[in-house]
Each structure stands twice: as structure tokens, then as C-alpha cells.
Write a sequence for this structure.
């Protein structure tokens, strides 16, 4: 019995460490390519090496960290290739979700988002920037409302990467792009509310591709 309790405690510790480290990575508290020292993490989180090591292995499977033999563990980089892969998957999932959502009879949820989302109410750049940090929730709610459990499950597997990329770049977006993003979100919602699957899909596709172009330009600018 004591052995079973010990195993449960170890699993619980591993999950706690995993959640803490993942949150720090997603929120960019742990920066891309930052070295993660196991002993420092053990001391900070007050756990043994086993749950830390297992949590890092889990994070590597989720592509949040990279474990390099004989060198250690590093936070995964936010490269352009990584971003493009995430956006390609987003386009597949979110376009499908928008089409499904547009066929729903009850559009109350989308009407409420369109009327009440914070990013549609503020006019100053700082307010828009802050509100758009939660803009991913618009996409998430569309996917969730589409009513396809498989779609929602697969989408949730990349949601942390979506949020991480958004947080990493939001402070660098120029005023023009901030306000364009708000308008694109509105167009997506309006197409869904009108019950136009083709328009909804195209609105999502255009929004994601414009966002990727903006991020690409930011990264090119940083390399100069």
C-alpha cells in the first residue's frame, strides 16, 4: 500500500513540475534557448531529480524543450520553421472549425464575443495590445463551439504553442497590425454569425496568413 502511495506521489510531483515549467515557457518567463539546470530546478521547486527529469522528458515530447546529450536541457527555440508548422496546423483545424460553426443554428455565443470582447472596445494601442493577448481565446471558442470532440482535442495539443508565439510577438506588433487583427477577428465572427461557411473559412485563412507574414517580417527585421 505504501508503495502505491509513493508512486502516486511521484506522479503527482512530476505533473506539478511539468505544469509549472510549461506555464513559464508559454508565458516566456523561460526564454527560447535558455538552459534549464536540473539541480537549480530541484532546489527551486523543492523536489528530487526524478520528477524534474521526467517532467523535462514530457516537455521534450511536447516540443517545449530540447534535451541535448552531454549538454543538457534547453527551452525550445521559436524559429520561423516552428512558427510556420504551427500556423499550417492552425489553418487546417481553424478553417474546419469555422465552417462547422457557421452551420450551427444557435449563434448566440459568437454574437456575444463580437459585442463584448475587450479588444473590440479599446482604441489606444496599449489597450488593444493587452486585449489581443487573449485573442487566441476567440479562435479556441470557435473550435470548441464547432462541437467536434476530436477536433477540439487535437487543437488543444498545439494551443500552448499558439499562446507562446502570441505572447512572444505581441509587444512587437506595430499599431497598424494590431488594429488589422481586431478587424480580421470581427470578419471571422460576422461570417459565422451570417451562416456563411465559405466566408468563414476564407476569413480565418486570410487572418492566419496575414499574421504569419507579419511575424515573418518581424523576424527578418531582427536578423538585419
Amino acid at each position: 500500500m505504501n508503495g502505491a502511495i509513493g508512486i502516486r506521489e511521484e506522479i503527482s510531483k512530476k505533473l506539478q513540475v511539468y505544469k509549472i515549467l510549461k506555464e513559464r515557457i508559454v508565458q516566456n518567463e523561460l526564454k527560447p534557448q535558455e538552459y534549464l539546470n536540473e539541480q537549480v530546478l530541484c532546489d527551486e521547486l523543492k523536489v528530487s531529480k526524478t520528477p524534474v527529469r521526467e517532467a523535462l522528458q514530457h516537455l521534450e515530447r511536447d516540443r517545449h524543450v530540447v534535451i541535448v546529450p552531454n549538454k543538457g536541457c534547453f527551452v525550445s527555440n521559436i524559429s520561423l520553421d516552428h512558427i510556420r508548422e504551427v500556423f499550417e496546423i492552425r489553418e487546417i483545424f481553424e478553417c474546419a472549425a469555422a465552417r462547422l460553426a457557421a452551420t450551427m443554428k444557435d449563434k448566440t455565443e459568437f454574437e456575444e464575443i463580437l459585442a463584448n470582447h475587450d479588444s473590440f472596445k479599446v482604441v489606444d494601442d496599449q489597450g488593444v495590445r493587452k486585449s489581443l493577448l487573449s485573442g487566441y481565446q476567440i479562435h479556441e471558442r470557435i473550435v470548441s463551439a464547432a462541437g467536434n470532440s476530436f477536433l477540439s482535442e487535437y487543437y488543444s495539443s498545439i494551443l500552448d504553442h499558439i499562446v507562446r508565439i502570441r505572447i512572444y510577438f505581441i509587444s512587437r506588433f506595430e499599431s497598424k497590425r494590431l488594429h488589422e487583427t481586431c478587424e480580421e477577428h470581427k470578419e471571422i465572427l460576422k461570417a459565422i454569425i451570417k451562416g456563411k461557411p465559405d466566408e468563414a473559412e476564407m476569413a480565418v485563412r486570410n487572418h492566419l496568413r496575414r499574421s504569419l507574414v507579419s511575424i515573418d517580417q518581424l523576424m527578418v527585421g531582427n536578423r538585419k
Q: What stands out?
A: Strands lie at 35-36, 65-68, 72-75. The domain at 80-223 is CATH 1.20.120.530 (Four Helix Bundle (Hemerythrin (Met), subunit A)). The longest strand covers residues 65-68. The first helix runs from residue 2 to 26.
